[in-house]
Write a structure and sequence with these properties.
11 helices, 68% helix, two-stranded parallel ribbon, elongated, single chain, mainly alpha
Protein backbone atom coordinates (compact mmCIF):
# COMPACT_ATOMS: atom_id res chain seq x y z
CA UNK A 1 0.00 0.00 0.00
CA UNK A 2 2.63 2.54 0.99
CA UNK A 3 4.79 1.71 -2.04
CA UNK A 4 1.86 2.35 -4.36
CA UNK A 5 1.13 5.60 -2.61
CA UNK A 6 4.72 6.72 -3.01
CA UNK A 7 4.52 6.15 -6.77
CA UNK A 8 1.21 8.00 -6.97
CA UNK A 9 2.66 10.96 -5.10
CA UNK A 10 5.52 11.22 -7.56
CA UNK A 11 3.36 11.35 -10.65
CA UNK A 12 -0.15 12.75 -10.13
CA UNK A 13 -1.93 15.92 -9.06
CA UNK A 14 -1.79 14.99 -5.41
CA UNK A 15 1.57 16.76 -5.40
CA UNK A 16 -0.31 20.05 -5.76
CA UNK A 17 -2.19 19.50 -2.52
CA UNK A 18 0.48 17.80 -0.47
CA UNK A 19 0.99 20.89 1.65
CA UNK A 20 -2.59 20.59 2.91
CA UNK A 21 -2.79 16.88 3.56
CA UNK A 22 -2.52 15.33 7.00
CA UNK A 23 -2.32 11.57 7.34
CA UNK A 24 -3.74 9.91 10.42
CA UNK A 25 -1.79 7.27 12.33
CA UNK A 26 -3.47 5.13 14.97
CA UNK A 27 -2.42 5.13 18.61
CA UNK A 28 -1.10 1.58 18.35
CA UNK A 29 2.63 1.10 18.04
CA UNK A 30 2.27 -1.72 15.52
CA UNK A 31 0.38 0.59 13.19
CA UNK A 32 3.01 3.27 13.59
CA UNK A 33 5.69 0.81 12.61
CA UNK A 34 3.71 -0.27 9.57
CA UNK A 35 2.38 3.05 8.35
CA UNK A 36 4.60 5.68 9.96
CA UNK A 37 6.56 6.21 6.80
CA UNK A 38 3.48 7.16 4.80
CA UNK A 39 3.00 10.49 6.55
CA UNK A 40 6.71 11.14 6.55
CA UNK A 41 6.91 10.21 2.87
CA UNK A 42 4.29 12.81 1.99
CA UNK A 43 6.20 15.45 3.93
CA UNK A 44 9.45 14.44 2.32
CA UNK A 45 7.89 14.91 -1.08
CA UNK A 46 6.84 18.40 -0.07
CA UNK A 47 10.38 19.09 1.04
CA UNK A 48 11.62 17.91 -2.32
CA UNK A 49 9.32 20.32 -4.13
CA UNK A 50 10.47 23.15 -1.89
CA UNK A 51 14.16 22.34 -1.93
CA UNK A 52 14.97 21.06 -5.39
CA UNK A 53 13.15 23.82 -7.28
CA UNK A 54 15.16 26.50 -5.49
CA UNK A 55 18.60 25.00 -6.05
CA UNK A 56 21.62 27.07 -6.99
CA UNK A 57 25.07 25.85 -7.86
CA UNK A 58 26.97 24.66 -4.80
CA UNK A 59 28.85 21.64 -3.60
CA UNK A 60 26.19 20.98 -0.96
CA UNK A 61 23.46 20.89 -3.54
CA UNK A 62 25.46 18.60 -5.79
CA UNK A 63 26.04 16.19 -2.90
CA UNK A 64 22.34 16.15 -2.17
CA UNK A 65 21.50 15.67 -5.84
CA UNK A 66 23.80 12.67 -6.06
CA UNK A 67 22.28 11.14 -2.91
CA UNK A 68 18.79 11.75 -4.29
CA UNK A 69 19.53 9.49 -7.26
CA UNK A 70 19.00 6.53 -4.93
CA UNK A 71 15.35 7.55 -4.45
CA UNK A 72 14.41 6.66 -8.02
CA UNK A 73 16.75 3.70 -8.39
CA UNK A 74 15.42 0.68 -10.26
CA UNK A 75 14.75 -2.55 -8.37
CA UNK A 76 16.05 -5.46 -10.41
CA UNK A 77 19.22 -6.71 -12.02
CA UNK A 78 19.65 -3.77 -14.36
CA UNK A 79 17.87 -0.44 -14.87
CA UNK A 80 16.32 -0.08 -18.35
CA UNK A 81 17.49 3.55 -18.38
CA UNK A 82 21.02 2.80 -17.26
CA UNK A 83 20.58 4.41 -13.85
CA UNK A 84 21.14 3.00 -10.40
CA UNK A 85 19.69 -0.42 -9.68
CA UNK A 86 19.34 -2.57 -6.58
CA UNK A 87 18.29 -6.20 -6.50
CA UNK A 88 15.84 -5.76 -3.63
CA UNK A 89 13.84 -3.01 -1.96
CA UNK A 90 15.78 -3.65 1.23
CA UNK A 91 19.06 -2.94 -0.55
CA UNK A 92 17.63 0.24 -2.04
CA UNK A 93 16.32 1.43 1.34
CA UNK A 94 19.72 0.78 2.93
CA UNK A 95 21.43 2.75 0.16
CA UNK A 96 19.06 5.70 0.61
CA UNK A 97 19.68 5.75 4.34
CA UNK A 98 23.45 5.59 3.88
CA UNK A 99 23.63 8.24 1.16
CA UNK A 100 21.35 10.70 2.92
CA UNK A 101 23.00 10.20 6.30
CA UNK A 102 26.39 10.95 4.77
CA UNK A 103 25.12 14.22 3.27
CA UNK A 104 23.36 15.16 6.50
CA UNK A 105 26.53 14.64 8.50
CA UNK A 106 28.78 16.36 5.97
CA UNK A 107 26.57 19.44 5.65
CA UNK A 108 25.09 19.62 9.12
CA UNK A 109 23.54 23.00 9.83
CA UNK A 110 22.69 23.79 6.20
CA UNK A 111 19.36 23.52 4.41
CA UNK A 112 20.78 20.69 2.32
CA UNK A 113 21.82 18.91 5.50
CA UNK A 114 18.33 19.27 6.92
CA UNK A 115 16.77 17.96 3.71
CA UNK A 116 19.08 14.96 3.67
CA UNK A 117 18.36 14.29 7.33
CA UNK A 118 14.63 14.31 6.55
CA UNK A 119 15.06 11.69 3.86
CA UNK A 120 17.25 9.57 6.14
CA UNK A 121 14.74 9.88 8.95
CA UNK A 122 12.00 8.69 6.62
CA UNK A 123 13.86 5.44 6.21
CA UNK A 124 14.10 4.99 9.98
CA UNK A 125 10.36 5.58 10.32
CA UNK A 126 9.62 3.09 7.56
CA UNK A 127 11.70 0.50 9.39
CA UNK A 128 9.77 1.02 12.62
CA UNK A 129 12.80 2.47 14.42
CA UNK A 130 10.60 4.88 16.31
CA UNK A 131 13.07 6.22 18.85
CA UNK A 132 15.57 7.08 16.11
CA UNK A 133 12.79 8.46 13.94
CA UNK A 134 11.60 10.77 16.72
CA UNK A 135 15.15 11.86 17.52
CA UNK A 136 15.81 12.67 13.88
CA UNK A 137 12.62 14.69 13.54
CA UNK A 138 13.46 16.70 16.66
CA UNK A 139 16.89 17.48 15.29
CA UNK A 140 15.50 18.66 11.96
CA UNK A 141 12.80 20.68 13.72
CA UNK A 142 15.49 22.66 15.53
CA UNK A 143 17.44 23.39 12.35
CA UNK A 144 18.05 26.79 10.82
CA UNK A 145 15.81 26.57 7.75
CA UNK A 146 12.32 27.27 9.07
CA UNK A 147 10.51 25.77 6.09
CA UNK A 148 12.20 22.40 6.50
CA UNK A 149 11.92 22.65 10.28
CA UNK A 150 8.17 23.24 10.08
CA UNK A 151 7.67 20.11 8.00
CA UNK A 152 9.64 18.12 10.55
CA UNK A 153 7.50 19.55 13.34
CA UNK A 154 4.32 18.57 11.53
CA UNK A 155 5.56 15.03 11.05
CA UNK A 156 6.81 14.92 14.65
CA UNK A 157 3.39 15.95 15.94
CA UNK A 158 1.79 13.09 14.03
CA UNK A 159 4.39 10.62 15.25
CA UNK A 160 3.99 11.68 18.88
CA UNK A 161 0.21 11.44 18.64
CA UNK A 162 0.49 7.96 17.18
CA UNK A 163 2.53 6.96 20.21
CA UNK A 164 -0.08 8.31 22.62
CA UNK A 165 1.82 11.52 23.44
CA UNK A 166 -1.10 13.83 22.68
CA UNK A 167 0.07 16.61 25.00
CA UNK A 168 3.41 16.98 23.24
CA UNK A 169 1.72 16.75 19.86
CA UNK A 170 -0.66 19.55 20.89
CA UNK A 171 2.20 21.82 21.91
CA UNK A 172 3.95 21.38 18.58
CA UNK A 173 0.72 21.81 16.61
CA UNK A 174 -0.09 25.09 18.37
CA UNK A 175 3.38 26.32 17.51
CA UNK A 176 2.72 25.53 13.84
CA UNK A 177 -0.59 27.39 13.94
CA UNK A 178 1.07 30.45 15.45
CA UNK A 179 4.10 30.31 13.15
CA UNK A 180 3.03 29.22 9.65
CA UNK A 181 5.64 28.92 6.92
CA UNK A 182 5.67 28.83 3.15
CA UNK A 183 5.30 25.04 3.18
CA UNK A 184 3.22 24.42 6.32
CA UNK A 185 0.23 26.72 6.34
CA UNK A 186 -1.77 27.85 9.35
CA UNK A 187 -4.59 25.60 8.15
CA UNK A 188 -2.38 22.54 8.10
CA UNK A 189 -1.26 23.38 11.61
CA UNK A 190 -4.92 23.66 12.64
CA UNK A 191 -5.65 20.23 11.22
CA UNK A 192 -2.78 18.79 13.22
CA UNK A 193 -4.01 20.61 16.33
CA UNK A 194 -7.57 19.36 15.93
CA UNK A 195 -6.27 15.83 15.61
CA UNK A 196 -4.08 16.20 18.70
CA UNK A 197 -6.90 17.52 20.92
CA UNK A 198 -9.72 15.40 19.50
CA UNK A 199 -9.97 13.36 22.70
CA UNK A 200 -8.94 15.86 25.35
CA UNK A 201 -10.69 18.97 23.98
CA UNK A 202 -13.31 17.77 21.49
CA UNK A 203 -15.30 21.01 21.49
CA UNK A 204 -12.28 23.09 20.53
CA UNK A 205 -11.36 20.53 17.87
CA UNK A 206 -14.86 20.77 16.39
CA UNK A 207 -14.73 24.57 16.33
CA UNK A 208 -11.44 24.47 14.46
CA UNK A 209 -12.71 21.96 11.94
CA UNK A 210 -15.98 23.82 11.37
CA UNK A 211 -14.02 26.96 10.54
CA UNK A 212 -11.79 25.04 8.14
CA UNK A 213 -14.78 23.49 6.39
CA UNK A 214 -16.06 26.98 5.60
CA UNK A 215 -12.91 27.89 3.67
CA UNK A 216 -12.74 27.88 -0.11
CA UNK A 217 -9.80 25.47 0.00
CA UNK A 218 -10.90 22.05 -1.36
CA UNK A 219 -7.96 20.08 0.04
CA UNK A 220 -8.32 21.65 3.48
CA UNK A 221 -12.08 21.22 3.45
CA UNK A 222 -11.88 17.53 2.58
CA UNK A 223 -9.33 16.90 5.32
CA UNK A 224 -11.46 18.82 7.84
CA UNK A 225 -14.61 16.90 6.92
CA UNK A 226 -12.83 13.56 7.25
CA UNK A 227 -11.30 14.50 10.57
CA UNK A 228 -14.62 15.79 11.89
CA UNK A 229 -16.05 12.33 11.29
CA UNK A 230 -13.24 10.83 13.38
CA UNK A 231 -13.75 13.35 16.18
CA UNK A 232 -17.49 12.77 16.29
CA UNK A 233 -16.99 9.00 16.17
CA UNK A 234 -14.76 9.13 19.23
CA UNK A 235 -17.53 10.75 21.24
CA UNK A 236 -20.16 8.10 20.50
CA UNK A 237 -20.96 5.76 23.42
CA UNK A 238 -19.32 2.38 23.09
Amino acid sequence: MDKQLREQLKHDKFVEEVGHTVHYLSDHKAAVQKYGGIAVGVLVLAIGVYGFMSWRESSRQEDLRQAALTLDAFIGDQSPTGGLAFKTQAEKDAAILKAMTEVANKHEGSKEGQLAQMYATQQLCDQGRLAECESGMRKIASGGDQNVASLAKLSLAELLLAQGKAGEAETIARELVNNPTAVVSKEQGQLALARAIAKSKPQEAQMILQALQALDRPAVTRAAVALMGEVMGQQLPR
